Amino acid sequence: xxxxxxxxxxxxxxxxxxxxxxxxxxxxxxxxxxxxxxxxxxxxxxxxxxxxxxxxxxxxxxxxxxxxxxxxxxxxxxxxxxxxxxxxxxxxxxxxxxxxxxxxxxxxxxxxxxxxxxxxxxxxxxxxxxxxxxxxxxxxxxxxxxxxxxxxxxxxxxxxxxxxxxxxxxxxxxxxxxxxxxxxxxxxxxxxxxxxxxxxxxxxxxxxxxxxxxxxxxxxxxxxxxxxxxxxxxxxxxxxxxxxxxxxxxxxxxxxxxxxxxx
Length: 263
Ligand code: NAP
Ligand code: GCO
Fold this sequence. Notes:
Distance between the termini: 44 Å
Bound molecules: NADP nicotinamide-adenine-dinucleotide phosphate, D-gluconic acid
Largest sheet: 7 strands, parallel
């Protein structure tokens, strides 16, 4: 079972001070990887570094806005100079803006596209040359149910995550010959700060209507947790997936397979 281990591997997870990125980094560390992460400001990086240390992980944290190509180039150059080129990249950093499309400002739409689609391009572009020198690498893009489905108020996010699915397939196509595998993870509805507004208890103590909706649309009849993503992420980062390329692995409890429970 050594093929699932990440011993001697250097892994960068973007936006990983907490949430899904943090959980994936924890799993990589448990599998033997050295962890590098960034976030948008020093406060978050400090919070993340402390949380990793509390989990027994000496992670290397950096402030870097993944939408800024100069920042990203400087980050990757610094990591490669200090530690060596990266074996694994997880494009996890992301934002969402829930606004009805006809009410959404173009600048808001562009911001979501910038973080959720342009940034994975920028970071992957910066990391791939080092992976080629390494003889190969693993890129995992964090996609979404919205890579396949739409819903009200998330037009920018769905456009970005749909594009991220195709960017994943294109990186797989263009760099597979260099032994780089690029795949996606499509989490279902996961309990993190990003989805907290969708799970807030109502004044009468009842579940949020959207919370109840997701329970009815999920065969597992529950929200996912960041723990549910650890195994799939380690699989896609490890030698166990060396012939898996251009695949989006949906970790959704069955949402995409299910018409939904009859009301
Ligand atoms: P999240 O709140 O979306 O966390 C994303 C992280 O990225 C935060 O630390 C955030 O910092 C950081 N970030 C945002 N913009 C950045 C930038 N320009 N540069 C660097 N870092 C930046 O939490 P999450 O729910 O764990 O989401 C992680 C990823 O999973 C996202 O790509 C999300 O779209 C995706 N996803 C989430 C779910 C879910 O149900 N939670 C499901 C499917 C996919 P701030 O705290 O300052 O925003
Ligand atoms: C929403 C949610 C979703 C999840 C996730 C589902 O508003 O519908 O935020 O977009 O974050 O992307 O896979």
